[in-house]
Amino acid sequence: MDSKPKRRTVIENGDTGEDLVLATLIGNGDDLGPLVRHAFEMGRPEPLVQQLKHVVKKKEVEIEELCKTHYEEFILAVDELRGVLVDAEELKSDLASDNFRLQEVGSALLVKLEELLESYSIKKNVTEAIKMSKICIEVLELCVKCNNHLSEGQFYPALKTLDLIETNYLKNIPVNKIKIVIAKNIPIIKAHIEKKVTTHFNEWLVHIRSSAKDIGQTAIGHSASARQRDEEMLERQRKAEEQNICGLGELVYSLDVEEVDEDSVLKFDLTPLYRSYYIHACLGIQEQFREYYYKNRLLQLNSDLQISSSQPFVESYQTYLAQIAGYFIVEDRVLRTSGGLLSADQVETMWDTTVAKVASILEEQFSHMDSATHLLLVKDYISLLGATLREYGYEVGSVLEVLDNSRDKYHELLLEECRQQIANIISNDSYEQMLLKKDSDYDNNVLAFHLQTSDIMPAFPYIAPFSSMVPDCCRVVRSFIKGSVDYLSYGVNSNFYDVMRKYLDKLLIDVLNEIVLTKVHSAGIVVSQAMQIAANISFLERACDFFLRHAAQLCGIPVRSVERPRASLTAKAVLKSSSDAAYLALLNLVNSKLEEIMALTENINWTSEEISQNNNEYMNEVVFYLDTLLSTAQQILPLDALYKVGSGALEHISNSIIAAFLSDSVKRFNANAVMVINHDLKMLENFADERFHSTGLSERYKEGSFRSCLIEARQLINLLSSSQPENFMNPVIREKNYNALDYKKVASICEKFKDSPEGIFGSLSTRNAKPNSRKKSMDVLKKRLKDFN
């Protein structure tokens, strides 16, 4: 078997690259189907045929060469080649047939393909147009939506819509004209929104300023109600403690739960402010709005701080202070809820400015006030203002210090008002004992001021030992205490009891005591009035303890702390001294009256030759006057005062008797006159003893009875009636029987004692073994007294 000759590839000059590829494929026995199919698909079979022919020619050349070398193989190859040629022709015919059919089918498909491609292009354009239209529609819908928000005044949604257009749509708007129009109108719309919002905010500024007064008044009203509840609770607690101290009941403590009324919460609308601030923040100009807000509110504050010149301050202070309170209540809520619109420093600055201005105005207005009531009304409202604003965190100490600095001015006005009231009471008083017809009168005039002398309720009608001046003055003092406590309470100092006590002492000493003493020492006052005033002063002195307890209760001080001995008012001691002065004035009046009566001693026959068995007329009048005086004094004066009046009057009578003997009008007297005066003196002594025991003074004063007040007159009469008057010079006898007599007075009186022989001693000579012994003893006494002097 012959080996198969190797294939050779002959490449001639001028062969193209395609021929070379085709030859290579044929030489390698590769399938030419794809190449043929491609030629027909491209509609160019002729070049392929030409290439095949060219390849055939080359193969023929190769064949010839091979034939020359291998003839037989060449013949076989030729035969094969012819067969191949036949196959090629058939293939060509098939290819032509297939190409024809393919052309027929392909032409229709190409038309469809072109139509399809055109449809795809139209679809793409339509899709793009739809997309652009959708964008435009969305933008226009947002524009319409924005316009609707603007027309409805919903500026925040309008801004959000503008921001959405500007951020997500403006750069992507396919229609340039729409894009330009929208871009041009966005700043205009924002400016319009800013203008509208600013207008609404300005309207809110006007509204909130006009509402500030109502806000302040409502808040101050809440503080006043809270204060009243606290005072009522303290009053209940005080009464419970008093009952417990008195043993009237056990202390019962209760928890008062206060229900918060939702309607009482301050309501005012800050929505326009929040909206304006937030919209300005959305516009990126929130700092500008902060400055605008602060500037306008500061202008409003400065305007509010100006007081009206057309209206008195006492008529406008509530409106003025309520406006300020409302202003800062609003600012506090803005500070807490607006999210940075106001700073704490700004509010503090406004508050400091307000405090300085208000303090200056109050000091000026207080200096012009001439009514304690007006000053108290302003003070109460200012303290409520302080309590209200303190709840919102404002420091109100500087405002309350103004009240503290004006307390002297207030009390001066209050003292002056009380002075006028007390002066009118005292000048209009009848100085007659009060007649209380029923228990309510007793409660209002006696028990109300602890003036009762007994815990037993008296029978009515009841005659009080004091005149109407006492309860009337007590009411004035009580109202003074209330007014003073009202002013001093809720101020800078919570413990103001000592201050209040100082002013109370000032009222009682400088006003009440002074007016009473003026009345006591005034001209035209009679004994009955002086006695009643003296009695009234003693009851006013007793009322000092009530005043002190009442002041302590109102000041919230435990009553037991003011019941200590050293805790009493200074005025009590002063009134005690005034009471003594009143008794002295009373005694002076009594003595003046007694002097008028004792002046009747000039009618005594000092040298009578007969002994009268009747008392002198003057002594009857003295006893009658003393009886009336002591009866009245017993009803209204305390026992010590009664003793002072009685003892003073009797002592003055004793002195008057001595003065009668010493009088220049009495040149001489005899024993008969001494006997008559002795009868008078005995009558007076009996009256003194009876009154000393009937008034109950004997139980208190074991020593020093009324009789002892007549001791000087009694010892003088005893001396003049003695059988041995010279014993006066005996120290032992004188100390025992004549210790109240003065040497000089005795010497002067004894010099006037001229007893006649046919006088009393002469008449007694028949009964006396030594009729002239008394005269001799008197002469000895006269001589020894003369030598002593």
UniProtKB/TrEMBL annotation:
Cell compartment(s), UniProt: Cytoplasm, Cytosol
Any one Gene Ontology BP term: vesicle tethering involved in exocytosis
Pfam family, one: EXOC6_Sec15_N
Exocyst complex subunit EXOC6/Sec15 C-terminal domain mapped to chain residues: 400-752
Matching InterPro entries: EXOC6/Sec15 (IPR007225), EXOC6/Sec15_C (IPR046361), EXOC6/Sec15_C_dom1 (IPR042045), EXOC6_Sec15_N (IPR048359), EXOC6PINT-1/Sec15/Tip20_C_dom2 (IPR042044)
Occurrences of domain Exocyst complex component EXOC6/Sec15 N-terminal (ranges): 51-220
Superkingdom, taxonomy of origin: Eukaryota
GO cellular component, one term: exocyst
Broad class of where this protein is predominantly found: cytoplasm
Swiss-Prot/TrEMBL keywords: Coiled coil, Cytoplasm, Exocytosis, Transport
General function of this protein: Component of the exocyst complex involved in the docking of exocytic vesicles with fusion sites on the plasma membrane during regulated or polarized secretion. Involved in polarized cell growth and organ morphogenesis. During cytokinesis, involved in cell plate initiation, cell plate maturation and formation of new primary cell wall.
Record family assignment: Belongs to the SEC15 family.
Name of the protein in its database record: Exocyst complex component
Native source organism of the sequence: Durio zibethinus (Durian)
Gene name, Swiss-Prot/TrEMBL: LOC111276744
